[in-house]
Amino acid sequence: INHKITNAAFPERDKSKKFPGAIIIGVRKGGTRALLEFLRTHPQVAATRQEMHFFSDDKRYAKGMQWYLSRMAVSGPDQITMEKTPKYFISEEAPARIHRMNSSVRLVLILRNPVDRVLSDFAQIAENKKNQRQNFTKLVLTANTGDVNKSYRPVYISTYHIHLARWLELFPLKQIHIADGDRLISEPLQELRAVENFLGLSPYFTEDVVYFNATRGFHCMRRQVQGQDGYTPFCLGQSKGRQHPSVQRWLRDKLEQYFMRHNEILFRMIGRRFKWS
Ligand code: A3P
């Protein structure tokens, strides 16, 4: 199979669609939705809201590259096509499949304090399993030893270096922009400008586009909506910014301690540090 497919190989109706020039690969609960929605307001970005789950799901991947292309947003010649699927970051197959599509595609990874990410992940899972009471301490610690449970999925996902290592086997580090999810919450403009720069887009983000909404407790955006004049304010839904479980100091310390050495491996891998403890 020839995976090196160019846009020219596809029928007329897909002519205005391009394969992604950049992909937000994760991490789940890092702020991937906020990042994509902010970027979607940029006139040079074409992206649909939906997560594609194409490179991480065998059934979808089997549908082929043309199917994938047909799912992309319609784009103009000066626009970069994007998609986001947080699952890609932890997927075994996604790096090689994406590399086969386009070895020079730009990758965006948004990371967040790994302990907060575990809590955020837990809060989401607990909400989805409303009928089962979820006990955070029981899940995150191993019963007989009291050690942090490495195989608890949220812990595994927050062990960033394990996943990033797979990407770095195929992609040079400079092709992966690592956005700071904690800063996307507190100072989104800085983070968005860094991404804008990485993607080679014209400067667009200002205080007019991205503003703090005190009622929501988060930054929101003003964007142009088809069929409406001017700019429409838009905030993310209530599923973003959930209440995390309250954890006692000793447990938080234990988790931070656990991630400390994993974070060090990551920092060495990326030549950059985050203030995570
Ligand atoms: P919490 O729900 O833990 O607060 P993802 O979209 O990858 O699932 O990430 C969700 C996280 O995005 C939320 O985590 C929230 O804190 C964060 N976030 C960052 N900027 C945001 C914004 N402007 N509005 C809402 N949530 C935002």
UniProtKB/TrEMBL annotation:
Q: Which UniProt keywords apply?
A: Disulfide bond, Glycoprotein, Membrane, Transferase, Transmembrane, Transmembrane helix
* Source species, domain of life: Eukaryota
What's the protein here called? Sulfotransferase domain-containing protein
Give the residues annotated as active site: K29
What residues bind 3'-phosphoadenylyl sulfate, as annotated? K29, G30, G31, T32, R33, R112, S120, K240, G241, R242, Q243, H244
Q: Which cysteines are joined by disulfide bonds?
A: C220-C235
Q: Which residues form the Sulfotransferase domain?
A: 22-225
A GO molecular function held by the record: [heparan sulfate]-glucosamine 3-sulfotransferase activity
